[in-house]
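Support request, please re-run this one:
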Amino acid sequence: MGLLSGLLGLPLAPLRGVGWVLEQVVQEAERQYADPAPIHRELAELETDLLAGRITEEEFGLREDELLDRLEQITTASGEDSAGSGGPALQEGPQ
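Re-run finished. Output below.
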């Protein structure tokens, strides 16, 4: 029965291959999105731009908030303790 089902399933082999490739692409995209290193680099570049006068303090604050929010999402999604990464120090508002 294995040979017969293998022969009958042969026309579907390209579709299974495409599905596997798409799965690999999605996994790599998720891995890259969840990597905090690029966010740390962007924060450093942002500070450099501020100190060099290429951006205003308002632009710096807005972009910094976006990057810190994304970094918090990554650490929360990966199950890391936010206290270990300075989480409470980054929160705003009354506590």
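The CA atoms of residues 72 and 90 lie 9 Å apart. The mean pLDDT is 82.
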